[in-house]
Amino acid sequence: MTKEKLLKAAGLGPEISSREAWKLFGIMAEFFEATEKLAHVRPAVSVFGSARVKPGTEYYKLGEETARLLSEAGFAVFSGGGMAVGLNIDLPREQPSSRYQHISLRFKHFFARKVMFAKFASAYVVLPGGYGTLDELFEALTLVQTGKGPQMPVILVHEPFWRGLITWMNERLVADGMIDDTDCKLIQVVNEPKEVVDTIFAFYEKRGFGPSPQEREVLLNL
Prior knowledge:
The chain is α/β, with parallel strands linked by helices. It folds into two domains: 1-39; 42-220, Rossmann fold (3-Layer(aba) Sandwich). It has helices spanning 3-9, 14-38, 58-72, 110-119, 131-146, 159-174, 181-184, 193-204, 213-220; strands at residues 44-48, 76-78, 83-89, 103-107, 123-126, 154-157, 187-190.
């Protein structure tokens, strides 16, 4: 069977190839716009959590207070807070852009958005959340673990929520040799918003927030 017949049988005719090519331009545009707008927004902290948490609830207040203290400490906050940078994603059930955002970027592609969260952050702060939050958490851990991203704090907020996951990671992943015990130490668990700020400053106390030449190279190839 010829290449043309194979493509046609798979529903991949010339018109599909053309759409895919134009899609690449859309992806490039997302990267370009985000990089242009975020290049000088530093130091910044990427904050993850559920978009489904309702105003006035415990987790919502926890997120507000955490973002407020990070902002007061001089950080731009990717997703809420003082210099609020919203890296929003088009999903049918998720909330619209926050009215508190000073810079609002809208993505169609998850991977482009995830790169921006990683590329410009000095820390990851993870509040209680669902699948999307867990996806961002393990993406961050993988980048730090493998050296494909710079070393930085990965902070889980509200220990009771994360207790079962941390226990499972130690009892299954470490015990079965899927990760090293040192990999679990990449995670720091805190309960209070002030501890988030203190943990970040403690990490950077001796080295400063600016990336090293080696880390710049890592970020360039992220």
